[in-house]
Amino acid sequence: MGILDRHFGFDEHDTDLETETIAGLTTFLAMSYIIVVNPLILGEAITIDGYSQGEVQQMIAVATILASVVAIGVMAFWANRPFGLAPGMGLNAFFAFTVVLGLGVPWEVALAAVFVEGVIFILLTAVGARRYVIELFPEPVKFAVGAGIGLFLLFLGLQEMEIVVADPATLVAMGNVATSPVAALSLAGLALMLMLHARGVRGSIVIGILATAAAGWLLTLFGITSPGTLTPPGSYEQVTQDGLANMIANVQYDFTPLVAGFVDGLGMITEDPLVFVIVVFTFFFVDFFDTAGTLIGVSQVGGFLDEEGDLPEIEKPLMADAVGTTVGAMIGTSTVTTYIESSTGVEEGGRTGFTALVVGTLFLLSLLIVPVISAIPQYATYVALVVVGIIMLRGVADIDWQNPAWAIAGGLTITVMPLTASISNGLAAGIVSYPLVKAATGEPRDVSLGQWALALAFVVYFAIYFTVEAGNVTF
């Protein structure tokens, strides 16, 4: 205990081993869905001769876990921050559906692009360039990120709980709890979690996730709901037909074909270098600002930011995602980034790298039970995001709403994130609007040259991104 205290600084951060452990378990449960979801998404684009789609997905699951463990190890021991990392949602979809299936870029080359992005991140982080750019963010944007991410989490959680559903007339509408078992059970789980949290029960988020997941399985086992309704699709049939022991024993752990594909991809870069550069730039830009926004937003919840809204020694946690991205590409997965679900563990009291160490250890142990992880219904983990999202909304109190520049930049940052399902888009709205409003109100001197350059960079990025999305670029 003394060794852990000295290394991670429990006393300095006013925490203890039990609190950090519960926080790590909470973060892991909130983000463990990536072990299942990432292979499903990347498996749409990655095909390997001689292997079935299921075997390829299992390879990607192993690569996902190992890349996460490497990145989290850097976060725990080098940065000493309570943040979890894994291949990022959104970035994996861009990899599979836009780059590989849309542009026709071979998946091997796409992995090479992610690798180059990671190497660039390592170099920029080492010389302090990433920290410099992040500290250019206008103050209202920095203080609005936490509330923006909170609203984003709320929206994601309510969608997965089927409380918010698609509507052709208004885009979204209220789901019908009376006809949706997922919505009904999720609401019950949410009520339990909120009551436990309000009473200050330690581990309230973990209890809520596990209780909701267990209830879904029990309702299925007793025949009250059909398989696949409250349990992940196919999981009930697999468990009852194959047996959990056989499922675990038959996992495809050999991911060397993915490594071989990455090596081949390095040799294919010269076939169309311009498209390769565009792909690298897009990966780089989105990951840069998604990670920056997540770090600032989650740090705000934990009280890690200084008076200017900056995270001290931010280059250390930034190095974690850079190393994770580089290693992840080499073993067969898309860009690794810091997860917004880390806010669940921070809310449970996680303050040091030991929280991250617990997350990494649980990811490593999940190698032994990949099928078990897939048995946790996604709506059960997303209930936790709703609770944390509500808590993160307190960040709106840090914004000076009487100041036009703060109100507009902060307001756009907060609202654009959930409405476009992108942290980087929310940052873009705030960063671009801030200098324009300052200039309009006769205060252009308050805007640095670097902030103008950052706003211009976003304009250039969107011009390139929309060109790629329109399919005007092919490999």
Automatic annotation (TrEMBL):
Its main location: membrane. Pfam families: Xan_ur_permease. Keywords: Cell membrane, Membrane, Transmembrane, Transmembrane helix, Transport. GO terms for cellular component: plasma membrane. It is a multi-pass membrane protein. It is found in: Cell membrane. This is Uracil permease. It comes from Natronobacterium lacisalsi AJ5.
